Amino acid sequence: MITISPITLVPLNVSAVSSTKHGVFAVLNQSNNKVFIGSGNLYFRKAVIWSLLRSGKHPNVALQHEWKYFGEAKFKFIPLFESENKEDISFMPECKRYWIWLTRATNKHYGYNLYKLTSGSIKLIMRLDFKDYTKRTA
């Protein structure tokens, strides 16, 4: 469980990210709790982002600068939503917008995402399993 003001991220319970799973993820800087929210093939996106950051060529200047300043060990890849079927994949853009809004990732004090949300309202219903959550926090 990772706390990012004002929320707590509970990573998906996966032992390893499958090379075929798509979803929404956060790249968390554990030094200052800033996040970058992204989506796509979870395995591929992590590999590409880490490769670009390690080589100093990531296009997000703020994220690249803080990677160099704090070091790789302070960054964590966190799957937030994993698709289970084709309907879930079509839902991912809305889910990504929700996580960007929730974490305030476009505010430079909280995150690294560079664009603002569209003017459309966020209509998202999240299913919470409180039994599972209490097990993780106990």
Say which CATH homologous superfamily is assigned: GIY-YIG endonuclease
User: Which value, in Å, is the CA radius of gyration?
Assistant: 15 Å
Number of helices: 4
Helix content: 25-40%
Shape label: globular
What do we call the CATH topology? GIY-YIG endonuclease
Number of strands: 5
Query: Which residue ranges are poorly predicted, with pLDDT under 50 across at least 5 consecutive positions?
Result: 121-138
Distance between the termini: 11 Å
Query: Any idea how many domains?
Result: 1
Strand order of the main beta sheet, please? 4-3-5
What percent of residues are in strands?
15-25%
Largest sheet: 3 strands, antiparallel
Element order: H for helix, E for strand: EEEEHHEHH
CATH class: Alpha Beta
Q: Structural class, from helix and strand content?
A: alpha+beta
Average pLDDT rating: 79
The oligomeric status of these chains comes to single chain
The second-level CATH architecture is: 3-Layer(aba) Sandwich
